[in-house]
Structures are given as C-alpha cells and as structure tokens.
Amino acid sequence: MSWTDERVELLKKLWTDGLSASQIAAELGGVTRNAVIGKVHRLGLSGRTKTSRPSAPRVRKARRPSMPPRPTTRVIGNTALKLNVVAEQQLEAEVVPMRVLAPVEELFIPPEERATILQLNEHTCKWPIGDPGQEDFYFCGRRSMSGVPYCEHHSRVAYQPATDRRRPKSAG
DNA sequence: CCCTGATTCGC
DNA sequence: GCGAATCAGG
To answer: What confidence score (pLDDT) does residue A144 get?
Structure first.
C-alpha cells in the first residue's frame, strides 16, 4: 500500500481525531503503526504527546547490517486449542451473566482488531459487543492485563463501583 | 509484559 | 519518501 491522497486525508483526520497510531494503522490497513507515525512526522502533524523530551539527543545505534531479526520459532505442543477451550469456559462463567443484552458499544473497535470467540485467549478482552445472536457480534479483543478478562477500558465498565451502578432510588 | 509516540537511517 | 528498528516514557 502507498500513501494515496485519500489515505493521507484519512490519516490526518483520524490523527486529529485523537486515535492512536496503531488504531489508525489498523483502520487504514496495509500499514504498521510505525508507518503511520513516520508519515505523521513527515506531514508535520506530530506534537500530540509529550512522552519524549524536547532536548537530549537520543542514542543512535548502528542498525543491523542485513539479517532477519529473529528466526526463532518455538512451538511446544498444541496448547492453542486448550486456550480456546478455556476462553469459552470463561465466557460462560463470566461474560454471560454480565450484561450481554445491554448495547454497550461506546468503544469503537476497528474491524481488524475485532475478535471472534476462536481468537480469544487468556489475555484478550472478552467484552462482548453487539448481540450474540447476530452476525456482527464480536468481542473487544484488545489486550487485557494478565488475570483480568477485560481490557482496561472494559474493566472499568465491568467493575463499576456499587455506588455508581445502583444509586438510592428513594432517599426520603 | 503491554502500550504510546519519537527518532534514526537503510532502502 | 517510506517504514522497520530502536529508543524512551507510561
């Protein structure tokens, strides 16, 4: 893929809209977040965050001459299927009693990042989005912290304080 | 570990 | 110009 005028416009729009580089990359498709960031800089759109210091030149290290990064591929048994089974069990035990019927779609997940039940594992967010009986139903799929079934965003929604979920209806 | 953007530099 | 590799902060 190349940076056509349309894609550049979309990039500028999404970046201005506040989406992260990885989100924009997923939305555009065919590019990585590095590509997005690089393009953003070349367009002069940077300056949104302050994670890097304005001064103090970074350490420039010689890049690899010419060699694949890491051809190391370790596959120890087929544990993938087991993870899927665990994911399903967790869905029945945790997600279903939650609030599947509630239309919770406040967080937009790009199509490329959406997860079906087969793609969930122990650290993907298992927050259901949409109606489980419909075709467009999917799971959040973003990364969740270890031991937590949801991503940071949906953890906040799932584990709301009791005071916020049910306020005193009759106070006098 | 995950994420984020910033920067360098081979292509 | 492009973007992977890398760096640096959270």
So the answer is: 78
